[in-house]
Structure formats: C-alpha cells, structure tokens
Description:
- It contains six helices and 22 strands.
- It is α+β, with helices and mostly antiparallel strands.
- Residues 1-20 form the signal peptide.
Amino acid sequence: MWVTYVLECFLIFSVHNVWGYIENVKTSGCESCALRLTCRHFDSIIAVLEATFESLEVETANETLPSIFPRIHPRTALNKRCSGVSYCSFILTKDCPGADKWGLGNLTVNYACVAARRITRHCNKEIILPSPETIGVSQGFVHNPGYPKFYLGKQRCQWKIQAPPLQRITVTIFDISLVGDPNREDCSDLLEVSDSGQTLYSTCEQQEPPIQVTSLGDTLDITLHPSPTESLLPRRGVLFYYTAVGCPTPSAPKDGYLVYRNDTAAEYSCCIGYAFPDIKKRRRIIKCLGHKWDVSIPLPNCDNTTLVIEENNSGLVSSKDLLLRKMAVEYNFREIVAPIVLIVMLFLLNGIALFVIYKYRQRKPVDATEDELGSLPITNTREEVET
C-alpha cells in the first residue's frame, strides 16, 4: 500500500495596510490525508480559491483515470467544510463524494486568510475604492450576514462598489450556496451582478472555475435576492472577491504630451529639444499591470538639459538615440530650413527681375533722345553759322 504523506507548504503574500491583510496560503497532501487549513489570526476567515487533484496512476493505468471530477467538485466540498471559518480539516476521499474512485493522487488547495477588516459583512453597503496612487491596490471580500451558517430572507441584500474614474471592477464568486434547485432554469433565490441597471450575470449555483465578472464602467451592483417568504434560510449564502482593474491616465509631464492610451499601455513624448531625465529619451511607453502602472506616478517633467549631457557624454547616447536625433535633424531641415531657403531664393529672383526691368526702362528714354537728335539737318545748320 502506498505510504501516505502530508506536505504543507505555505507561500505567503500579505497585503498590509490600515485596512487589514489578505494572506494567500497553499497546502497539499494525498487523497486520504487530512489537510489542515488554518489562519494565523482568529479573526480571519478562509476563502477557498482553487483545488486541483494530480493522479499518481496516469503512467500505470491511464485508462482508469476519470476525465472529470466527481459529481461534487473538491472545491465545492471544501467550501462546505472550510469557507468562512479560521480552521478546518479536510480528507478528500471522505468529504468529497465520489473522490475515492480517483485512486492514488495528490490534492493541492490554494486558499486565502482574510482579515476581518478586509471583509464587508453587512447588507446595503457602498464600497468606495480609493485611488491606487494613494494606498495601492483596492481589494476585499464580501459575504452576507450569517455566512457560512445561514442567510436572511424576505429582503434583498445589495452591495454597490465604486471604483476611481477610468478604472473598472472585477468580481470573483468563490462560494454560493442558496436554497433552490440548480437544475431549474429559474432560481427561487439568486445572486445578480449588474452595471447601471444592465444585468451582467445571475446564478444560484456554484461554477468551476469560479466565475469572474468585470464591470463596463466604474460602478458595479451585486444583489442577493432571497426568498420573499422565509426569514432565515439554512444555506451559507455568498462569498465573493472584488478588486479594481485598469489604470487611471497619468497627467502629461511639463513640456510633454500624451501620444495615445489604451487598456494596457500609454505613450508619452517630450517636446522637441526635451527628454525624460531618468531615461534620457523623448518617448516613453508605460504599461498597465492590472491596477497600476509599471513606473512611478506622476511622470517626471521633461528636461532640456538632458540632451546637453548626452552630447557631452557619448557613453550615454545609444545608437537608437543617435538615429532619432538624425531623423529629428532631417525633419527640421525638411520642414523648416528648406522652405525658408526656397522663400529667400524666390525673393532674390524677384529682386533680380525687378532690377533688370528698372535698368531696361532707364535705357529706353536715352535711346529715344538719340533717335530724335539723329533726325535733325546738321549740315544746313553749319552753313548758316558760317554765313
């Protein structure tokens, strides 16, 4: 018999600020091992993010390996046992019906320990996400009152999330357990995600992998529609994660301007004769990594002394910079110097033409006078004088 083992490896990434933390944890073990999911703080709760099973019988008996998970997904079984609490134990073959047919293998679970301050647990709340330029990423979890033991009926439970301008909101539904038959097309109780009155997604059952819904603008409404007749319903309710995505457009630097902007990148350029002092180039492309830019914001102002430094220190000038500078000189000659030279030449030609015309007109009266004098009887005049 294969020797059972337990391997627990904690890969921790904590987001610390005044609003609490979210700690990501990874643990794994064999199909019959007891996995212990635990959080370091008692006021934190577990949110199961992912569960994967890797069979050890692929090479020896590939034909016996099922192509899909059991009728109950391991993550769904983990949600039922572990979501919303700070500590639990889980055995795949015992707590997930049908998993015993998988044979020998290894189950890996990724889960988050969410501090109480990062959880919104009351209905009809408006969550305003701050700008990433102030405190960084905006994220958190939301669950209904009573989660994971029950949820309230008769009155709907609504949450409104507002992101900064030019950002959007992504919601991931990690756990949903509502009263009703999931085989019916119309759910008696359901969770609805909408944007400005437009329904983006609605469901009453859990999907694997968890469904992600992204808003069209900077607002998103999530509404839990419970039974109108029951006051308390014996299901967990809902647990979802929200985060702001996209990057606000940074202001253009002094002596610079925005060239273009899309969802993933933006290009800025300095005016002719200026450059960014940190990279010593006129153009700069910045990339949006989820919720923030890959450079410090705001951008540094363009500086005209950078080009002087580059000219005096050839080691700072790359071949690309030299090519750009040569292109700029050619552009200046073609667009500025050449038209000026052409205009000056036209003026010179016009001046020469006017001078020739002026000289020609001066010579014409003299020629006419000579013609008149040449027609007088000069011989007769001399005879009269002698007489």
